[in-house]
Write a structure and sequence with these properties.
alpha+beta; six-stranded mixed sheet; 6 helices
């Protein structure tokens, strides 16, 4: 047996942990493979075996011709598609793992990173990766994170996936990297959560995207309704300001005026906000049959076609005179004068009270 990197002779050994492996017969400091831990070597071997079981060729320690990357295991499909399977057991920063992933992508090589330590590393949420069980025991299984999506409950981790199946699904694109959402998991009755990139099937990703789109649409509609309500409030407030400024009526005068009108028209009547539809006057409504009916318009600045059938309410004789100036037809005018407490009915025409 010879090392594929330096051609030095290799020998079979058993580590102090009982792991069978191959090692250089003599120290070889210049060999790029020297210094690899037994766990790293075993994980690479398992990754290569899983790729070959999926029908792909798998070669260890394949370097790019330009030296930009060196794959622990380079899996190649019969049609030439390449995926690097990286056994990353030594410490690495998120910046470094992102940078190395980007170098693969420049050459059109996909990549998945693997770690089998007890705890997943912080960088694993930043790149396509899988956290595996250790080498002890039978076949390795995935600890995280492969997830399925359920509308209403979100993403949940899938348990009991073997490394062989996971690699086969990734190579066959039955699993795709997905970086949106929070994954819920349960391990030995211990609940855990994960946020970051994970693997899932395309239909689950599509379902999650559709629900996210639907929620965004609902949120946007709710925001639009809120904005419309706020805009309506501003329009209404501006209409009131114009009404008070135009009529010169204060709160005390208006309360007395309103009491006279409602005393004559009934307690089921109420005034609406100033409306451009009724010449910036305030419409007077009556509650009737679960709805409302227009009874009159108070203190309008203009008259419209509605004045042919709807009475106008004014608060003094000057207001009555103004209606003669605005009238284009016979208009019924109700005079509710707070200074006298009177409520009188008049008819006005253009320039005439009769």
């Amino acid at each position: 047996m010879h090392c594929p990197a330096c051609e030095s002779q290799m020998v079979a050994r058993v580590s102090v942990l009982g792991l069978r492996h191959f090692a250089h017969r003599r120290r070889s400091p210049d060999c790029p493979l020297a210094g690899e831990s037994v766990g790293h070597l075993l994980l690479k071997s398992d990754l290569a075996a899983a790729a070959r079981a999926a029908g792909w060729s798998a070669t260890l320690e394949v370097a790019a011709s330009h030296g930009g990357w060196r794959a622990d295991v380079l899996a190649v499909s019969p049609d030439g598609r390449r995926i690097a399977l990286e056994a990353q057991l030594s410490p690495i920063t998120e910046h470094e793992v992102r940078e190395r992933t980007a170098r693969y992508e420049v050459d059109g090589v996909e990549v998945c990173w693997f770690d089998d330590r007890d705890r997943p590393r912080p960088w694993m949420g930043a790149v396509p990766s899988l956290h595996l069980t250790g080498p002890a025991g039978a076949s390795r299984t995935v600890r995280g994170v492969i997830a399925r999506y359920s509308a209403g409950t979100g993403w949940h981790a899938v348990d009991d996936v073997t490394l062989t199946d996971a690699v086969k699904w990734i190579l066959g694109r039955r699993l795709i990297p997905h970086g949106q959402g929070y994954v819920h998991g349960l391990d030995d009755a211990h609940r855990w959560g994960y946020r970051g990139m994970f693997w899932t099937a395309a239909p689950y990703a599509a379902a999650a995207s559709e629900e996210a789109r639907r929620r965004r649409t609902q949120q946007e509609a709710a925001e639009a309704r809120w904005e419309a309500r706020e805009a309506a409030k501003k329009v209404k407030a501006a209409a009131y300001e114009r009404f008070w400024a135009r009529t010169g009526i204060g709160p005390g005068w208006w309360r007395a005026f309103e009491a006279i009108v409602r005393g004559a028209m009934g307690d089921d009547t109420f005034f609406g906000a100033p409306s451009q539809r009724y010449g910036d006057g305030r419409p007077l409504y009556e509650k009737r049959g679960g709805g409302t009916q227009l009874l009159a318009v108070a203190l309008p600045a203009r008259l419209g076609a509605w004045a042919e059938t709807t009475p106008v309410v004014v608060d003094d004789l000057a207001g009555l005179e103004r209606m003669t100036q605005l009238a284009f037809c016979d208009v019924k005018v109700l005079l509710a004068a707070p200074d006298t407490g009177a409520f009188e009915m008049h008819w006005v025409g253009p320039g005439t009270v009769y």
